[in-house]
Design brief:
Elements (H helix, E strand, L loop, with lengths): L1 H20 L4 H11 L4 H25 L5 H21 L5 H25 L15 H5 L2 E5 L4 E5 L4 H18 L4 H11 L4 H25 L5 H21 L5 H23 L3
Antiparallel strand pairs: 1-2
Helix pairs in contact: 1-2, 1-3, 1-9, 1-10, 2-3, 3-9, 3-10, 4-7, 4-9, 5-11, 7-8, 8-9
Length: 280
């Protein structure tokens, strides 16, 4: 019974942070399961994949109701992520994974630094300076708005640098296949830093995208009998509860606070990737 309560609590924490930051929750679950609880990394990977589905399911409807989830943007960028995942699978036998883990870790450190600079410089609500004065049809179709309940402001946004953002989504797919990670941080940073989208929209949209791409992996592991139901079931229940709570809190949380959380998670991610690259 105690073990069940621990798994539920871990799931709630992972779902809460995963839904707020668009990371799926795996980055929280993996170190807890492997380092703190001593489970094998293969078990942690399977649990993380199902946690991503739980986070996406628990938060998608609320984010859609609050206009934070941009479905058109998600499905457009998902094309490039899927292609990248296919290319990554083809390259998996040719590229040395250790080096890629170190490279990914260094990238996370750099992104934490750039996001910290955003915190110190203040939040800008209208991030459209890189967009054309006369938006293209694609830009218009990927634009949107939402009501920020924390500031009581109507936030209008328009996607900028779409080709570069699409290319980074392609790289996120490659990284996901090569390293066995969700690459949620990659996706959020591509939308936030490159495409000039609000962080809340980026996080909500990345959550949905990770859920879409995680379905095929979940089906595969389930068909192979690799799912440890006594572990997965309570954690996923906790994840759904945590992500539902996170999706209700997101519209009311100041963006600066979300960025601070994101910096901390990026640093943890960077350390994890770096240690895995060094064989730790």
């Amino acid at each position: 019974m105690l073990e069940f309560a621990i798994f539920i609590s871990i799931g709630i924490l992972a779902g809460l942070l995963g839904s707020l930051l668009g990371l799926g929750g795996g980055i929280i679950l993996t170190p807890i399961l492997t380092i703190a609880l001593g489970y094998d990394i293969k078990v942690a990977v399977v649990v993380s994949i199902f946690a991503v589905l739980g986070t996406s399911a628990g938060s998608a409807l609320a984010y859609l109701e609050d206009d934070l989830l941009n479905l058109r943007l998600a499905m457009y960028l998902e094309i490039f992520t899927t292609i990248g995942a296919f290319v990554g699978a083809l390259l998996s036998t040719l590229v040395q994974g250790q080096f890629l883990f170190i490279l990914y870790g260094l990238l996370m450190f750099y992104q934490a630094y750039t996001m910290w600079k955003k915190i110190r410089g203040g939040e800008t609500h209208h991030l459209q300076s890189a967009a054309a004065k006369e938006p293209s049809l694609l830009q218009e179709s990927l634009s949107g708005s939402y009501q920020d309940l924390g500031t009581q402001m109507e936030i209008h946004y328009q996607a900028a640098n779409i080709p570069l953002g699409s290319f980074i989504m392609f790289l996120a797919g490659v990284a996901s296949a090569l390293l066995g990670i969700g690459a949620g941080a990659f996706k959020v940073l591509a939308m936030d830093n490159v495409m000039g989208l609000p962080l809340k929209v980026s996080s909500a949209t990345a959550n949905f995208m990770m859920g879409v791409t995680g379905v095929s992996s979940a089906i595969f592991y389930f068909s192979q009998g690799s799912v440890e139901l006594p572990i997965v079931a309570p954690i996923v229940l906790g994840v759904i509860a945590g992500s539902t709570l996170g999706s209700r809190l997101m519209p009311r949380i100041p963006v600066a606070f979300l960025r601070i959380l994101f910096v901390l998670v990026l640093l943890v991610t960077g350390v994890q990737m770096f240690l895995r690259g060094l064989g730790g």
